[in-house]
Design a protein that fits this description.
367 residues
């Protein structure tokens, strides 16, 4: 099992860097993203700092992993798994104001309430073996505009703490679902390239990485930082379904690079369970696509099952489902490693958005 030492516990170790809320006077307030942007032009600005954490947290040569929602939830699932198995705690947060526009309201029992903006939070873990600590950045959504400015502020902050940045993403290919997921990689420096070549993965030769997974690393390169994007392979025809096998493949590579003893058995178990449950359907879809050669239907759409058969079913949660979720929340409060099982159940019932704040609050530092 991974070392479960708290990110905020213990004395400062040799080579440690203070993890500070990036505000000179450490005032604990919620700053807008415009305030954060103002720091670049000399105006005072800061991130929202978790009020349960100390004013500074000592981290040893930390590596930053940044994840956002994307195909197959590959990156976010890998990030949440790290948080759960390493026992991370929240240390800072970007305010969404100025980054995201409100595009909806919520209705509960006929009453309209103001909608909720996506949150972007930092979580940290201290490696008890005196190697690299890890900071995970979880963004609930990618900003629709201003991605370059967003990434520059993130790197401006992280650059004070870390020298190496990773993003996790998915690569959709024509792979068969029972084949192992390969990991593809691209890096920012020659030293990291040599490191990746020594691992069991594929180096991207000529490609583009879209969205924040690529833009963030481009900004990091300009700042002279080391970094890499690790992409887990998944079947293109199921890019809208959670694909844990790709997350597991990425974490296998990352844990070796970081020297982390990460228990991946839960991801292995979930992968086998999904393959057993959907194996017949997936095989039929793959065969229909491969055998489709008719001129009038070159993509084989007529031979595919109806859309409702291919999509992940969206069961209406029962009272027993809700009770089980409450039981898992209680277990995760006392054993952080149980949090990924809870995440899996919330995803299965399509309830993660409803419980998202409560779920991530599990990673608050105990008061």
């Amino acid at each position: 099992m991974a070392n479960m030492e708290s990110a905020g516990a213990g004395a400062q170790r040799s080579g440690e860097t203070p993890f500070r809320a990036p505000c000179a006077n450490r005032v604990r307030r919620t700053a807008s993203f415009r305030d954060i942007q103002g720091a670049a032009s000399g105006r005072t600005g800061c991130l929202q700092h978790d009020e349960q954490m100390a004013d500074q947290i000592q981290l040893n040569d930390p590596w930053l992993v940044a994840t956002w929602p994307g195909m197959g939830n590959v990156g976010v699932s890998a990030g949440v798994y790290l948080m759960a198995k390493l026992g991370m705690h929240q240390v800072a947060e970007f305010s969404p104001r100025g980054v995201f526009d409100m595009d909806h309201v919520d209705v509960k029992n006929g009453i309209i309430r103001s909608g909720r903006l996506p949150r972007s939070r930092f979580f940290a873990w201290r490696n008890g073996s005196n190697r690299h600590d890890v900071v995970v950045f979880i963004g609930e959504a990618q900003p629709p505009t201003g991605t370059d400015a967003f990434c520059r502020k993130l790197i401006d902050y992280a650059g004070e703490l870390v020298k190496r940045v990773f993003t996790f993403a998915a690569m959709a290919t024509g792979m068969r679902h029972r084949d192992p997921s390969r990991v593809f990689g691209a890096v920012l420096d020659q030293e990291s390239l040599g490191e990746l070549k020594g691992l069991d993965l594929n180096i991207l030769d000529d490609a583009q990485i879209s969205g924040l997974n690529g833009v963030l690393l481009g900004v990091a390169a300009e700042a002279g930082m080391r970094g890499a994007c690790l992409l887990g392979e998944m079947p293109q025809i199921f890019s809208q379904l959670p694909y844990r096998k790709a997350s597991r493949a990425i974490l296998g590579v990352f844990s070796r690079m970081a020297g982390i003893d990460l228990d991946l058995t839960e991801l292995d178990r979930q992968t086998r369970a999904v393959e057993q449950k959907l194996g017949g359907l997936i095989t039929n879809v793959e065969q229909a696509m491969e055998s489709s050669q008719r001129e009038e239907d070159p993509l084989g759409l007529k031979d595919l099952p109806a859309e409702s058969e291919v999509e992940n079913p969206k069961p209406k949660p029962t009272s027993q489902d809700r009770d089980h979720i409450e039981t898992l929340f209680e277990e995760a409060k006392h054993d952080r490693s149980k949090a990924f099982e809870l995440k899996h159940e919330l995803d299965r019932l399509h309830l993660f958005k409803e419980y998202e704040d409560r779920f991530l609050d599990l990673f608050q530092e105990p008061g």
